[in-house]
Known about the structure:
Number of helices: 4
Number of strands: 0
Shape: flat
Radius of gyration: 15 Å
Distance between the termini: 23 Å
Largest sheet: none
Low-confidence stretches: none
Amino acid sequence: xxxxxxxxxxxxxxxxxxxxxxxxxxxxxxxxxxxxxxxxxxxxxxxxxxxxxxxxxxxxxxxxxxxxxxxxxxxxxxxxxxxxxxxxxxxxxxxxxxxxxxxxxxxxxxxxx
Length: 113
């Protein structure tokens, strides 16, 4: 795994924070943290998209962010656990992992221009 894929995973991690922040922010500091998480998340995703296929980057970013947000809501905010939701999230993660595995890490021509 190269540094561009690490950027995608870190961007997805910050996506979890800003999505949760959009629902649970209540004062200046929580909204500021949400805004910072949005900036970091999209900045890293855009930087990774310069070297990796944009469609795959976006799919992995959204898939990991969605799965992380759903599991965070269950673990930290009391959302009920449903087996069918968990199975569908696992199916989503299988698709994300599959996309990552079939995508070449080769830098695209003209990516730095």
